[in-house]
Design a protein that fits this description.
The chain is α+β, with helices and mostly antiparallel strands. It is built from seven helices and ten strands. The chain has helices spanning about 25-30, 50-60, 65-75, 125-135, 140-150, 185-195, 200-210; strands at about 1-10, 15-20, 30-35, 40-45, 80-85, 90-95, 105-110, 110-115, 160-170, 175-180. The strands form two sheets. Strands 7-8-1-2-9-10 form a six-stranded antiparallel β-sheet. It has a four-stranded antiparallel β-sheet with strand order 3-4-5-6. Strand 1 and strand 2 form a beta hairpin. Helix 2 (about 50-60) crosses helix 3, helix 4 packs antiparallel against helix 5 and helix 5 (about 140-150) runs antiparallel to helix 6 (about 185-195).
Length: about 220
Amino acid sequence: MTFSLAGFCPETGMLGCVISSSSICVASRCAFARSGTGVALTQNITNPDLGPLALDLLDKGMAPEPVLEALGEADTDVRWRQLGVLDTQGRGATFSGSEALGIYATAQGSNCIAMGNLLANDQVPEAMTAAFSAAGGPLAERLLTALEAALEAGGELGPVHSAGLLMYAAPQWPVVDLRVDWHISPISELRMIWENYKPQLDSYVTRAKDPANAESYGVPGDM
């Protein structure tokens, strides 16, 4: 009941993912990333423990395929999962268990992976990787373009209600962590939130790293 894409930008070193689902609060359970490490996606009938575990294994130098094998050994119910791992070399791997729901599929592109279950058709992940590869501009724009392409290609069989955009750069905390936990049009709502957050992204990083030279907040009472 989810479709997602993880992407890496070799020019900037930024990495992240987008995700949407008919379920509430999908990004809080299914999307994981870490600076200088990679992205892990765990969906279908989700085990959120597998996200941090995948990132820990990537940190130890394991490639995505062995990471997925290790996750399968760690989770005796892995046949219910759909998993994706992308590292900072742009290498990716995906897994769909035998109990994945409805129409499910995965796809790999240059510096990206995509997957989904309970899909309207099995071409949705391919539409996401193609859109990500064809899009220009910052990583966030490419990720959102891929999510919008998934919806245009059919998306989930039923209506989606939640969506998220998660991105890491040099800081150890997410430079973008935007979520729409319940909405009639979560992907367009996520786009709106990003358009408002985009001009402020660098300012929040500066406030953390160099507060003496940070921009003002521009709110009442801020001198």
